[in-house]
Design goal:
Elements (H helix, E strand, L loop, with lengths): L1 E6 L5 H7 L5 H4 L3 E3 L7 E6 L2 E10 L2 E6 L7 E6 L8 E6 L7 H21 L2 H10 L1
Antiparallel strand pairs: 1-7, 2-3, 3-4, 4-5, 5-6, 6-7
Length: 135
């Protein structure tokens, strides 16, 4: 199964990749949180589906996040600069099952709604300006 969200924020690929880190999960989602000290690209997290190792990987256009021990092989990408909507951010979440029960689908939808809302705030031009001026 796959799910999508679009965010109307214009940002470059490199800035997006540099902004989305496992060390700042609390800024980009309220549904997942670090349970351990994050490494560069991996951290043990807790969230609505339990506890997993979250791996962050740079990909063309952005970042892929994957829950390594997840029985559904849940992963999602956050990308920008990809046609036909190159001036927005796309979140694309997949699981390795063609069908799931309605409760699971609702949880995924809630996660994506929260994640896209948090990302929209975190990656807004004003917020990015504040981050860079405080460094």
């Amino acid at each position: 199964m796959e799910f999508f969200r679009k965010i109307s924020v214009k940002i470059g690929e490199e800035e997006l990749q540099n902004s989305l880190q496992v060390s700042n999960l609390e800024e980009i989602s309220t549904n997942i949180f670090n349970l351990d000290i994050p490494g560069d690209d991996e951290v043990y997290i807790g969230g609505i589906w339990g506890e997993f190792t979250l791996r962050r990987t740079r990909i063309r256009g952005g970042i892929r996040f994957a829950l390594l021990e997840c029985p559904n092989a849940l992963c999602w990408t956050v990308t920008t600069g990809i046609t036909p909507e190159s001036d927005s951010i796309t979140i694309h979440l997949t699981v390795n099952r063609p069908q799931r029960n309605s409760e699971f689908i609702e949880e995924v939808e809630d996660f994506l709604n929260d994640h896209s809302s948090c990302l929209e705030k975190f990656l807004s031009p004003k917020q990015r300006e504040n981050i860079y001026t405080s460094l």
